[in-house]
Amino acid sequence: MENHKVVVVPCSGIGKSLGTVGRVATYKLIERMKPKETRTVCLALLTMGDDDALKLVRENPCIAVDGCPAQCSKKNIEASMGKLVHSIIVTEVLRKNRSLKPEGVIELNDQGDKLAEIIAKDLSKKADEILRKEKCE
Amino acid sequence: MTLATGKVGIICCSGEDLPEGTISRVATRLVLEKLRPDQTVTLCLPLFLAGGEDERAFARVFPTIAVDGCSKKCAEAGTKKFSGKPVATILVSEVMKKYPHLKAKSRERLEPQEMELATKVAEEIAKKVDEILCKTAKK
């Protein structure tokens, strides 16, 4: 498989800062760490069943990045019959990094940004792993 | 199901792929946190699909404003499809036409110019909130 990108879909979590952590982590990955190998799609478009969004998640490996256990991103990718290969829940990463206290939705505080950086690095490793596997298939 | 009084629901698209999606999200939070904190509530749009009946009742409980980044109007369409017809829609791309000097470029962290745009959108949402609350108070 060539020219495939890993599609990273953060939840739209607007009620809590953890949604913003997932969103910022995604942008760190797709804009700075792996701009050529990864991309995102609007989750709302997927929820609405947009043809282009459906095609994208069905033809490319997807990672869901969810802020909370409601897992809106994961569930929407699954409902779209997307190729979900991995999912991350910010609350679980936070549990392993208890010293960090993310705050803010409009703008994350520094600790939230650090948590986003940790998640982005994990996502980057996962994206490499997924793309390596895709090449071998 | 009866309409709750004194509160307006705001559903934004949050569009992760577009700068206008981030503007819709930040504008919504500005209304919730600063402009009309006691009169507004929100819900994550994808929760309509991932959540249960409580979430899907949102637009039947609250008169709702959809805030969309682009002309695909996912927030308006999604709210209508899963919950109830929004009372109004604010389109970021339309608000931008009134302020051509303000551009939306960032998806992650808004620059001062983009924050100004988000504030303009937030002010339009707040104005709409007031209109809706006046109408419901008269009924």
Order of helical and strand elements of chain A:
EHEHHEHEHH
How many strands appear in the DSSP assignment of chain A? Answer: 4
Quote the CATH topology of chain A. Answer: Rossmann fold
Amount of helix of chain A: 40-55%
**Judging from the principal axes of the Cα atoms, what is the shape of chain B?**
globular
Q: How far apart are the termini of chain B?
A: 17 Å
Number of domains of chain B: 1
Describe the SSE topology.
The complex is a heterodimer of chains A (137) and B (139).
Chain A: E1 6-10, H1 17-33, E2 38-39, H2 43-47, H3 51-59, E3 61-66, H4 72-79, E4 83-89, H5 90-96, H6 110-136
Chain B: E1 8-12, H1 19-35, E2 40-42, H2 47-50, H3 53-56, H4 58-61, E3 64-68, H5 74-82, E4 88-91, H6 92-98, H7 112-138
Parallel strand pairs in B: 1-2, 1-3, 3-4
What does this structure look like?
The complex is a heterodimer of chains A (137) and B (139). Chain A has 137 residues and is α/β, with parallel strands linked by helices. Chain A has one domain (6-127): Rossmann fold. Chain A has helices at residues 17-33, 43-47, 51-59, 72-79, 90-96, 110-136; strands at residues 6-10, 38-39, 61-66, 83-89. Chain A has a four-stranded parallel beta sheet, sandwiched between helices. In chain A, strand 1, helix 1 (17-33) and strand 2 form a beta-alpha-beta unit. In chain A, helix 1 (17-33) packs across helix 6 (110-136). Chain A is globular, with a radius of gyration of 14 Å. By secondary structure, chain B is α/β, with parallel strands linked by helices. Chain B has one domain (8-130). Helix content of chain B is 52%, strand content 12%. Chain B is built from seven helices and four strands; from the N terminus they run E-H-E-H-H-H-E-H-E-H-H. Chain B has a four-stranded parallel beta sheet with strand order 2-1-3-4, sandwiched between helices. The mean pLDDT of chain B is 92. The chains are: A alpha/beta (137), B alpha/beta (139). The interface between A and B is medium-sized, with 35 and 33 residues.
